[in-house]
Specification:
The chain crosses the membrane at residues 6-29, 62-80, 92-110, 116-135, 147-171, 191-213, 233-260, 280-303. It comes from Paraburkholderia sediminicola. GO terms for molecular function: transmembrane transporter activity. This is High-affinity branched-chain amino acid transport system permease protein LivH. Keywords: Amino-acid transport, Cell membrane, Membrane, Transmembrane, Transmembrane helix, Transport. The chain has 342 residues and is mainly α. The protein has a domain at 25-171 and 185-269. It contains 14 helices and two strands. It has a two-stranded antiparallel ribbon. The longest helix is centred in the N-terminal third of the chain and has 32 residues, at 3-34. The radius of gyration is 21 Å and the shape is globular. The protein starts with a helix and ends with a helix. Mean pLDDT is 86; it is low at 337-342.
């Protein structure tokens, strides 16, 4: 392997790692705030890419009706809970109604415009809204259950969302044009501007998450709820709202990664599952709680995958998933050392 091939594979690996970073960080965000390993995180990537493709084709995605129907179910459950405690459900009806109206207006506007920004925004809002709705139906009714039970619920959600994508968009792949057709060369290596956009988005989202958790009151509330749920409740922090917010942000991050990845590959209903697993492999390096280590892990996965495909493209995924073994061994050794010190 010469230096040109090494540089080319390195650039390709960093691009892949940037995509995995958005999914991996969303997994860490959900786990640190709710203690749920959200296996369905990769499906949000699929829904984001396919919704964006539908809007660019000028068609209204049927996902809108799925989200509105799910929202109606959540409204019914919240209204019944409010009446059980003798509270008026009027505020809930207004809140859900306003959100549904905004989503519908965005979706219809995205179908009749050529603005890529509006189309991305509509797809992002639509998929991000799925996050808190899924949290309300699967996690919020089971606050005291063990992480294993919540993991099983997450697997069930993934098993529902995967065929749902096939039902809504079919098996035919969708082609999405890149956000920029510009290309430039660095040391004779051709680099697409789309790859730079993906890397920039990963860096910006990482910095935004750091600032959000470090300095904002909402971010501090999320951290407090993840450290001590009961203590957060006694301090007046609405843990249910915190969980919904974390799912909203995580779903939006995965949807964004799907929209950025779609121009590099064909958007199809299977694309998110493998990307979600690779993001999980990288996130395990940080134990699903450490953002810097998880970020380093997903970039390691991206570079390792790129070089593995050079030597054996058929075994590329097998080599990538085998990284879990040394990562878990390293994590267990490190944890054992910390326990011995205490």
């Amino acid at each position: 392997m010469d230096w040109f091939s090494t540089l080319f594979l390195g650039v390709d690996g960093i691009t892949n790692g940037a995509v995995y970073a958005l999914v991996g960080l969303s997994l860490v965000l959900v786990y640190t705030t709710t203690r749920v390993v959200n296996v369905a995180q990769g499906e949000f990537l699929t829904f984001g890419a396919l919704s964006f493709a539908s809007f660019m084709e000028g068609s209204l995605t049927s996902l809108l009706y799925v989200v509105l129907g799910t929202g109606a179910v959540c409204l019914l459950l919240d209204a019944l809970q409010a009446m059980r405690f003798r509270r008026s459900p009027l505020k809930l009806v207004i809140r859900y109604g306003v959100c549904g109206t905004i989503l519908t207006a965005l979706a219809y506007a995205a179908c009749h415009t050529s603005s890529t920004v509006l189309q991305m925004g509509a797809a992002l809002a639509l998929v991000a809204t799925m996050g808190p709705l899924i949290y309300r139906l699967t996690v919020e009714p089971n606050p005291g259950n063990s992480p294993v039970v919540l993991l099983i619920c997450s697997v069930g959600v993934s098993l529902i969302l995967h065929p749902l994508a096939l039902l809504l968009w079919g098996a035919d792949p969708r082609t999405v044009p890149p956000l920029s057709d510009l290309r430039f060369s660095v040391a004779n290596v051709d680099i697409a501007m789309q790859s730079v956009i993906i890397l920039s988005a990963a860096i910006v989202m990482t910095a935004a998450l750091f600032l959000f958790f470090r300095f904002s009151l909402v971010g501090k509330a999320l951290r407090a709820a993840s450290i001590n749920r009961d203590g957060a409740l006694y301090c007046g922090i609405p843990v249910g709202v915190v969980g919904r917010l974390s799912y909203f942000i995580a779903a939006g991050m995965s949807a964004l990664s799907g929209m950025l990845l779609a121009p590099l590959v064909t958007a199809n209903y299977e694309m998110g599952f493998v990307v979600g697993l690779k993001g999980f492999v990288g996130a395990t390096m940080g134990g699903l709680i450490n953002y810097p280590l998880s970020l380093a892990g997903v970039f390691l996965v991206g570079v390792f995958e790129s070089f593995s495909s050079f030597f054996s493209s058929s075994l590329r995924d097998a080599w990538v998933f085998s990284l879990v073994i040394p990562i878990l061994l390293w994590r267990s050794t490190r944890l054992g050392g910390e326990l011995n010190e205490h």
